[in-house]
Structure to design on (416 residues):
């Protein structure tokens, strides 16, 4: 069922009466129909066996979207936790989308997870690496050490040019192929989650497959798209921390969270691409009299600082636009070495499982720290409706407007 149709079916199920009229005109309950049962199951936190859905032994088939613009992808996941009564786990995923986006990964060792639930893995190219992975594993208890391998082939990635003044009409496309091979250590103490990781990132940039737009290789060079002609191999070292103080991270009404990370990327074959990356992500949730009325705030800063004479590859730069930051603009609309993003939402629970939101966002990308201020921000605003269980926002429909138009998004999970 398409996501928009699922939203409408769920709203009807939650807001419409669920009774039939008997011969004596007295309402009497009846057994919910198939769609109603599916909607109530989707909006429930009762996950038998730790993970809802079809299981074929250790194999778990799913439908997902691996990255913005990738389209729906049948995905097969393999999940074998606590093998032989030990803490040793094996997790793997494979998917191929309608737009030929391919994603494969493997984690072996003490893999972060909650109970029997499937591990949470970041797959998209608009996420802030490596902080997004730390956020996804922040709720997992205990100590983890594991090896991870990932391969992506995303043939229709978008590039509009560098900087805050790029033009929408200059949109081009490229194909990103990369492999990431890492060793990761992570542990949680009380509400603080810490992660260290080291690995090798190998990338190839090729012509995109979307015939609607010109290829990024046409009209660009190393000056306008660093890394286009020679995508470097990186050795990276990263460390990060996530402090979780929200009442319910998947459906917060009060509290705060703080994520920080610092990374070093070294070009294996020269000095053209070497840089440090620092990220800070702060979120606050303020109830207005009761948990039905909440103001949610978010502030994100990502700062890439290249060595003297070096550059950050364009495909690794932080981006604004899409489903994460500045949602009123197209995905990957703005990119540069540095990013500042601000978001605020007023959330009102119409019913326990239905939430309305008013949304305002602002942000910008910029090349140097001299522009780290609140001037020349881009803006978008709009409204949304979310379907929730007590623990988690399951589905959301957001409509955001910016000077470049109006975007409608249907996404799984919370906005932040």
């Amino acid at each position: 069922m398409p996501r928009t149709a699922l939203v409408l079916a769920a709203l009807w199920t939650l807001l419409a009466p669920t009774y039939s009229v008997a011969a004596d005109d007295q309402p009497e309950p009846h057994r919910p129909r198939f769609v109603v049962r599916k909607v109530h199951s989707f909006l429930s936190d009762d996950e038998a066996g730790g993970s809802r859905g079809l299981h074929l032994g250790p194999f778990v088939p799913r439908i997902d979207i691996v990255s913005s613009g990738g389209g729906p992808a049948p995905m097969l996941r393999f999940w074998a936790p606590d093998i032989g009564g030990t803490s040793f786990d094996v997790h793997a995923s494979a998917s191929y989308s309608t737009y030929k986006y391919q994603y494969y990964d493997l984690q072996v060792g003490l893999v972060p997870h909650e109970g029997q639930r499937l591990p949470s893995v970041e797959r998209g190219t608009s996420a802030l690496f490596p902080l997004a992975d730390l956020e996804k594993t922040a709720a997992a208890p205990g100590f983890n050490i594991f090896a991870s391998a990932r391969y992506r082939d995303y043939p229709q990635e978008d590039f509009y040019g560098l900087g805050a003044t790029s033009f929408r009409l200059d949109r081009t496309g490229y194909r990103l192929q990369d492999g990431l091979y890492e060793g990761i250590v992570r542990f949680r103490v009380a509400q603080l989650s810490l992660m260290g990781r080291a690995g090798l990132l190998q990338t190839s940039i090729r012509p995109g497959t979307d015939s609607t737009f010109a290829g990024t290789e046409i009209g660009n060079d190393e000056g306008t798209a660093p890394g286009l002609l020679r995508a470097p191999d990186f050795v990276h070292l990263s460390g990060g921390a996530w402090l979780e103080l929200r009442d319910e991270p998947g459906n917060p009404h009060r509290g705060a969270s703080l994520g920080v990370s610092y990374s070093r990327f070294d070009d294996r074959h020269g000095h053209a691409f070497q840089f440090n990356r620092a990220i800070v992500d702060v979120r606050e949730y303020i109830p207005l009299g009761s948990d039905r009325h909440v103001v949610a705030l978010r502030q994100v800063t990502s700062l890439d600082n290249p060595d003297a004479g070096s550059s950050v590859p364009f495909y690794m730069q932080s981006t604004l636009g899409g489903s994460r930051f500045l949602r009123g603009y197209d995905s990957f609309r703005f990119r540069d070495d540095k990013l500042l993003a601000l978001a605020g939402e007023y959330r009102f629970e119409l019913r326990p499982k239905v939430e309305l939101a008013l949304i305002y966002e602002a942000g910008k990308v910029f090349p140097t720290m001299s522009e780290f201020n609140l001037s020349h921000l881009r803006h978008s605003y709009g409204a949304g409706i979310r379907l929730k269980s007590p623990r988690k926002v399951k589905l959301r429909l957001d409509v955001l407007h910016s000077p470049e138009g109006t975007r409608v998004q249907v996404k799984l999970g919370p906005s932040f």
